[in-house]
Write a structure and sequence with these properties.
- With about 160 residues, this protein is an alpha+beta fold.
- The protein contains 5 helices and 8 strands.
- A 4-stranded antiparallel sheet has the order 1-4-5-8. The protein has a two-stranded antiparallel sheet with strand order 2-3.
- A hairpin with a 2-residue loop joins strand 2 and strand 3.
Length: about 160
């Protein structure tokens, strides 16, 4: 994929400032930035050639898709997930990245690359709201001024304050 836009996550800043997050230690140069979108410019042998030219948003975690957790749709619980910008895996602040075709999601024509790059953090916010059973009209406290914390402000309707 030719990268069109990349967001900077709090984890990227944390790796830069502190050199680690828990057991994940940056011990050699690492490219950060896992919130990305761009255009497919080449494909692997078993991938539909019709994807060339498609604009996509990347899902930054690629699991095995064969273990019990993955097969039950809980691949985020796969302990050996390959996650962009988590040592030792580089990420998307580069001209090109390679990712499994199943984790390159088509982008609607009306979205810019910058908006499409926010698909991952917005999906985290939506998942959290669903997990907490938040419904329209509920009042909640959102802490944090990062892309995930700010995304609910963008999810309100146009006439809402």
């Amino acid at each position: 994929m030719k990268v069109g836009a990349v967001g900077i996550c709090g984890s990227d800043v944390h790796y830069h400032d502190h050199g680690r997050i828990g057991d994940y230690i940056v011990d050699q140069p690492m490219i950060i930035g896992h919130e990305a979108a761009g255009r497919v410019i080449d494909i692997g042998a078993e991938v539909d050639p019709g994807l060339i030219g498609q604009r996509v948003a990347l899902e930054p975690g690629v699991p095995c898709r064969a273990c019990a957790e993955c097969l039950q749709g809980r691949y985020n619980l796969f302990p050996d997930i390959v996650f962009f910008a988590t040592p030792p895996v580089d990420d998307a602040i580069s001209q090109f990245v390679s990712i499994d075709a199943h984790f390159a999601h088509p982008v609607p024509a009306g979205l810019s690359d910058e908006q499409a790059a926010m698909a991952e953090p917005v999906s985290v916010g939506i998942w959290a709201a669903q997990k907490a059973h938040i419904t329209p009209g509920d009042r909640v406290l959102v802490t944090g001024a990062g892309s995930i914390g700010l995304s609910p402000l963008r999810l309100r309707g146009p006439s809402e304050p």
